[in-house]
Amino acid sequence: MPRPLAITDDQELLDDLLRIAAAAGVELDVAHAAAHARPYWIRAPLVVVGSDLADDLAATGPPPRQNVVVVTRTTDDPDMWRRCVAVGAHTVLELPEAERLLVEEFGDTAEPVTRAGTVLCVAGGKGGAGATVLAASLALTASRGGLRTLLVDADPLGGGIDVLLGQEDALGARWPDVVGREGRVSFAALQEALPTFGELTVLSAHRGEPVRIPREAMRVVLDAAQRGCDLVVVDLPRHVGEGEAEALARAAATIVVVPADLRGALAAAQTVTLLRPGTGDLRLVMRAGTLDPEVVAASLSVPCAGVLPETRGLVETVDRGDPPPLRRSPLGRFCGELLESLLGGLSQSGRSGRSSAGAGGP
């Protein structure tokens, strides 16, 4: 496989480039003179031109191509953009400030985007509304339908979504193993580290001391998942910290589960007020109660996406260590219809070329 090309004779700059490339998990071809770059110029997936050789490279008249960047360790050089245009680069990256951007550029050559993971967030309008059950059921339904799915437990006080799936003893990392992660990680590496069942990968909280999820850790996880998954379902707590805000900002839709009773509606009004500024598309999923679901939705000024069917024996099923019953059940049909309405044709396209993951998973 062709490797990114670095064109520089500045040893300090080259040391930086080699270190940054290693952080992205890639190796470089290196040209120490502009003339030496020609054999690699067209086939390299990315060309990184050091500011020291940019003028020399422009003088060789390289053919136009995409994915060329100029890197420099000098800030505010008024001549740098002229060099950028001269070599046909699309940007100038000043190190060390732009190291993260360069890691992303290198990483995209090692792991091209193969999916476009849609993020759905699920939150409870009040405690005990059933948001975690819905989040897990949506993820299970999607994965059994052939969509590569990541289920993210963002509620450190929820006891671990792996318990609800009956997989609390499954080997693999939980949030405490991930929170210190920075930079870039491939989805393949994330999937290998986390409990995975067929097309479903799970990142759960644990049952020790609660761990706050930093924005950077959530960003790393969601970046990887959006490159390698079809769907990401995030089970949110009823508060918004930095990590939760990162998930909300990426969500194609955020679902709030609301019991259709007076206390449920009042609590959900506060939850909606908290969530609305951070996400673009809010929907309600109602639990049947003493109030008309459409009246509750109108009072909250949020559209209702459906009424969650009651599942007889659900608590007993989960307490036995079994996941929510979905096959040929009202809950399973509801989740399938909700996913279809939110994702459109994604569920059908996700099945093409891949078998169903219903067997052997939770």
Automatic annotation (TrEMBL):
One Gene Ontology term from the biological process aspect of the record: negative regulation of cell division
What GO molecular function terms would the record report? ATP binding; ATP hydrolysis activity
The record's annotation in Pfam families points to:
CbiA, Rv3660c_N
Task: Tell me the domain of life.
Answer: Bacteria
Chain ranges of the CobQ/CobB/MinD/ParA nucleotide binding domain: 121-157
Q: Which residues form the Rv3660c-like CheY-like N-terminal domain?
A: 7-113
One GO CC term, this protein: cytoplasmic side of plasma membrane
Q: Which NCBIfam families match?
A: CpaE_hom_Actino
How is this protein named in the record?
A: Septum formation initiator
